[in-house]
Amino acid sequence: MLSRGQGASRSGAASRARRRWREDNPPAPRRSALDGPVQKVVINVSGLRFVTTMATLETYPDSLLGDGRRRKWYFDPNKNEYFFDRHRPSFEAILQYYQTGGMLQRPEEVPAEVFLDELEFYDVGEETLRRYREEEGMELPPPDVLPPPEDERLKKIWLLFNEPKSSILAKIVTTICVIMILMSVVVTCMETVPEVQEWLHTPAQGSNETGPLPVTRNPFFVAETIYVAWFTLELVLGFVSCADRCRFVKDYVNVLDFIGIALYFVELGLEMSSNLPTDQINRIVNAMWIARLVRMLRIVKVTKYSGDMQLFWKAMTNSMTAIILFFFMTTVLMLLFSCVVYYTEIDDPDTKFTSIPETFWWAIVTMINIGYGDYYPRTIVGKIVGSIAAIAGIVALCLGIPEFMECYIHLYEAARYHKRYSQRKNFDMASSKFGAIGSSKSRRRNLSRNRDKNRTFKLVL
């Protein structure tokens, strides 16, 4: 049984995972004491002695206590006991893990990271460590990334656009991608400024042109051409170097890129067409607002290069059930309060609730407690209904936000733990070069033995 301790939240998914793990991993068979003489073992953990049997420790022969070759390095012949200068409150639960054949329960007073460090030191197994990290919220879900190709040349291209930490050139390419995305969004926003629109539709002084500035001479269109050229190169190289092209095509980021590029070429084709007059072409181009909307959606690509935004997106997808329930309840309440307020205010001559669809706006801003005041009830009954709508909106918000926040905090704490764990692991690897004994993994590495030709063991420091 894996447990977080008293006061920790337990999700239904974690409980089902523990139940499936118990079914797939039944307790290891215990050796009977009647098969032979019982060999007692004394284990001293920082002055606190524990007495068990050799058969109990050998239940897991791959662990530190179950492997006699590794265990002997902690044996004290003067006291005839094994001495470990480790955390005492944690060892009782670890010894119980051996005695019960795989049931692990963290003591309430022991922090989760301290207990995990002890489990790593005693080497209870990667599967047990993984299950413990999942239960304690330390295990990040596997990233949904595309696998690198096997060809070395294609792999270099793939790393260039997908792994910024692989090389300095990859960092430069990633920086260029982010700049292109941000500048594309900025240019699309600036293009809608009234002063800019007036300048684009006013002929230059001394020019014989009577219409607005052609699209091909539009500086915003030229900038968009540069961005599209870069995104096209990125999309083509990504498709060529990808190992799984089906997953690449289904990725929503690549779909947005392809739609934006396709709409650009449609816009360019309309401009270069000679069959239509210029005024008609410009009207068609201006009507293609969806192309500009897709340009704005390019900002979503930034999540590819930001770990925190990936956590936010992952929390959104994991709590999608609660979010869908929130939107459903909000829609139901919006329809209900819109109908009630419309029929209570219909007799007021100055009412602004001219129809039920017109009342939807008032219901939404009231339930989310914004209340702009542009629409408000005037009758006593309408005000009472508005008050109930505001309270109901608070209740509806409680359906989605708590689960989303819990999911995000869970992922954030797991990411922070993995960052600290990676830093500690790198420190242990650096310490092992000089023979230093660092944490549990470094100590196990420094106490590893190698067989020589005489079938003996030697200590590697």
Can you tell me about this structure?
The protein contains 19 helices and six strands. With 461 residues, it is mainly alpha-helical. The strands form two sheets. The protein has a four-stranded mixed beta sheet with strand order 2-1-4-3. Strands 5-6 form a two-stranded antiparallel sheet. The protein has helices spanning 12-24, 54-57, 68-71, 88-99, 112-121, 126-136, 152-162, 168-190, 194-200, 219-241, 245-250, 252-272, 278-287, 289-296, 307-318, 320-345, 356-367, 380-432, 440-446; strands at residues 40-45, 48-53, 75-76, 81-84, 449-451, 457-459. α5 packs antiparallel against α6 and α8 (168-190) packs antiparallel against α10 (219-241). Residues 1-11 and 432-461 have low confidence and may be disordered.
Indicate the mean pLDDT. Answer: 76
Number of strands: 6
Query: Which spans of ≥5 residues are poorly predicted at pLDDT below 50?
Result: 1-11, 432-461
Q: Strand-residue fraction?
A: 5-15%
List the total number of helices: 19
What overall geometry do the principal axes of the alpha carbons give? flat
**Subunit arrangement of the protein:** single chain
How far is it from the N-terminal to the C-terminal residue, by CA? 37 Å
Going across the major beta sheet, what is the strand order? 2-1-4-3
User: What share of residues is helical?
Assistant: 55-70%
What order do the helices and strands follow? HEEHHEEHHHHHHHHHHHHHHHHEE
The radius of gyration is 33 Å
